[in-house]
């Protein structure tokens, strides 16, 4: 049984605020770094988001047809594979055609995927040869697809545990021998998150000879945890244009400025160099994550090409302009609550005392709801 946190109020040192309207766009305008509100920590499944319709826009779990929403685990991914959230003071206007995609906006703040080392729980990295990792992933994926066709889902899942454990153990032993030989200088090696292709929930993971990531990066577990509602300062690297049911849904790719890789990642082209396979995994995840719900694959503008930093900065500038129209009541809000405590030119501005009263009058959290398990993996074949 899983339990869900369904409501989160944002505050600063003065009291309640709107995470959409009161947190500034820029962390440092001169350096072009931005604030990011974490809605969904990496490798979690609950579909949390800034609620646009409620006053002060609390972060809440999305509900569909009366049920709390969770993203499915599409093998080999586990939950969200990055820290996922939104850039405040942005709005993808649903009444304006995006000049680069030809589709209107999705009526949300712009999404951002933070790709650094921050995770939400004990997550493990496997150091080995890039080619070996790719072969291992393909082998497990193919065998899982074959197994799922022949067995019940419960049997396939149990098979997955045992088979993956055996493959990992044997591969680790082989790589340890190779890494100690002269071949290590001629074959590229990398350190990849195990959960990027296996997930971090399997019971055997802790028994394998894997290093928790903070041992590798030098960060302590407390520093390494990205929390829901946390505000990160991020460097923008690029953008992907997802077309979701005919609407433009930009995904900004960014990295925490405090991340160990932040200095090395200056442009989208640097991502493949330092985090090989991550962009491909990102496109795959965005393409297939709705398939277990019975929906078709998502589509992309630009054939899925990740646009560069300059392009992404232009997109953020545009959606910030649309937000300015929204907060000044110069654009149709369409049900979006624009109440805020800090924008002096906004007719929606309220006093801090009123914001506190709104929060105090809000319903108290009810008993936790039990929900259907989401740990099961869904074998999805990408065409």
Automatic annotation (TrEMBL):
One of its GO terms (biological process) is phosphate-containing compound metabolic process. It comes from the Eukaryota. Its EC number is 3.6.1.1. It holds the Pfam family Pyrophosphatase. Its cofactor is Mg(2+). InterPro entries: Pyrophosphatase (IPR008162), Pyrophosphatase_sf (IPR036649). Keywords: Hydrolase, Magnesium, Metal-binding. GO terms for cellular component: cytoplasm. GO terms for molecular function: inorganic diphosphate phosphatase activity; magnesium ion binding. The keyword Magnesium applies. Belongs to the PPase family. This is inorganic diphosphatase.
